[in-house]
């Protein structure tokens, strides 16, 4: 894919509509001089190539802390998104999301759950998480260590070429049936670029957020569920494990902050899938005291060392993403709870009993 970012080949939209790929307003673009002022002052800035429609869009967050580049087909369909984040004075590639469309170019954005995606997350301690999600085949998942990370210098204003070139999509088949084999080859090559991460006791669910959502939907509708996602029964609750840290940073050699970042990324992926199905999440009040199902569930979560929880309702069931443990202690964990809806909403309904006294779980309860 040919990309350009030379001076005079770009525009600076004041506001940019990401579906139509159009700048908005009566005076839709900054002048180069005004755009430079926005950038130098650390304000948010959008950059596109000069095409109509543009083939790429760069979103620079305030303070030049994050640079996100999205590439499009000639029909405005997203094909790749790359996120760079300022770390130790340079930009680290935090994420590269590649999109494949087996049914052809839809000429618009469609939900990721309907696509083949290859999602790569990079971390400052040399770990990469790679995942291929597919609606037609089993997911592919790996955590690897890499000897060299994708890093580039923070660009000076107008010098976007290196950033765009480092982010540009590979020349692989993105559309039609060839995209299936292309995505498979692409993810296998990404995994082969490193060595498997080996930490005793560590475990990550080898499934995408879309697969977890499918399991949650099936369980709440009392339908058959795929065996890939383990389910731990706790009386009226079900626990779907997603991640177990397994060892402290002192034991594993990994960075504690990056361990927390990995859990944050996994939780964000789950939240994105659940938000598409059930709307925006609601923060669960872990400090709730007193009587009633919400307070009882909160007490059980505190006993399980929960740090954060957010919930949705789906098919009259509470769906809760729970982060627990401490990264320095090595007991970080992430799970999805399925509970009676009144445990989270507090609304009256059919009696379902008190929240279980023990919602703790361990790696030993997960097969494989």
Notable traits:
368 residues, alpha+beta, eleven-stranded antiparallel β-sheet, seven-stranded antiparallel β-sheet, 20 strands, 23% helix
Shape: globular
In the predicted model, the low-confidence regions spanning at least 5 consecutive residues are: none
How would a crystallographer describe the biggest sheet?
Answer: 11 strands, antiparallel
Total number of helical segments?
A: 8
Average pLDDT level: 92
One letter per element, helices H and strands E, the order comes to: EEEHEEEEEEEEEHHEEHEEHHEHEEEH
Strand residue content: 25-35%
Estimate percent helicity.
10-25%
Distance between the termini: 41 Å
Rg calculated over all Cα atoms: 22 Å
Structure class: alpha+beta
Please report the total strand number as a whole number: 20
If you had to describe this structure to a student in words, what would you say it looks like?
It is built from eight helices and 20 strands. Strands 1, 4, 5, 6, 7, 8, 9, 10, 11, 12 and 13 form an eleven-stranded antiparallel beta sheet that branches. It is an alpha+beta fold. The chain is globular, with a radius of gyration of 22 Å. The protein has helices at residues 32-40, 161-167, 178-192, 209-220, 249-252, 256-278, 293-303, 342-345; strands at residues 10-11, 16-17, 22-23, 45-49, 56-60, 66-72, 78-87, 90-100, 116-122, 127-133, 140-145, 151-152, 195-196, 203-204, 232-234, 237-244, 282-283, 306-314, 317-324, 333-340. The relative contact order is 0.10.
């Amino acid at each position: 894919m040919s990309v350009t970012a030379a001076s005079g080949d770009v525009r600076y939209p004041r506001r940019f509509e990401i579906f139509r790929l159009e700048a908005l307003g009566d005076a839709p673009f900054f002048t180069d001089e005004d755009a430079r002022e926005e950038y130098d002052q650390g304000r948010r800035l959008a950059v596109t190539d000069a095409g109509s429609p543009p083939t790429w869009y760069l979103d620079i967050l305030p303070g030049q802390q994050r640079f996100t580049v999205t590439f499009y087909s000639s029909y405005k369909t997203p094909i790749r998104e790359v996120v760079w984040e300022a770390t130790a004075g340079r930009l680290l590639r935090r994420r590269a999301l590649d999109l494949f469309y087996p049914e052809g170019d839809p000429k618009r954005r469609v939900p990721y759950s309907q696509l083949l995606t290859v999602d790569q997350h990079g971390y400052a301690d040399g770990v990469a998480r790679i995942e291929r999600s597919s609606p037609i085949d089993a997911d592919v998942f790996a955590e690897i260590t890499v000897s060299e990370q994708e890093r580039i210098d923070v660009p000076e204003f107008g010098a976007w070429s290196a950033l765009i070139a480092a982010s540009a999509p590979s020349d692989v088949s993105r559309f039609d049936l060839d995209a299936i084999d292309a995505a498979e080859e692409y993810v296998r090559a990404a995994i082969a670029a490193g060595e498997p991460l080996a930490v005793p006791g560590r475990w990550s669910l080898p499934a995408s957020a879309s697969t977890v959502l499918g399991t949650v939907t099936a369980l709440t509708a009392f339908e058959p569920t795929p065996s890939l996602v383990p389910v731990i029964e706790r009386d009226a609750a079900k626990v779907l494990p997603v991640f177990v840290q397994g060892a402290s940073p002192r034991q594993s050699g990994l960075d504690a902050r990056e361990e927390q970042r990995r859990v944050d990324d996994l939780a964000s992926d789950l939240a994105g899938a659940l938000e598409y199905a059930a709307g925006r999440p609601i923060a669960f009040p872990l400090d709730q005291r007193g009587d009633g199902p919400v307070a009882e569930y909160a007490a059980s979560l505190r006993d399980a060392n929960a740090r954060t929880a957010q919930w949705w309702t789906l098919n009259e069931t509470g769906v809760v993403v729970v982060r627990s443990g401490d990264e320095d202690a090595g007991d970080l964990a992430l799970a999805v709870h399925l509970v009676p809806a009144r445990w989270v909403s507090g609304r009256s309904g059919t009696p379902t009993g008190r929240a279980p006294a023990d919602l703790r779980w361990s790696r030993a309860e997960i097969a494989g």
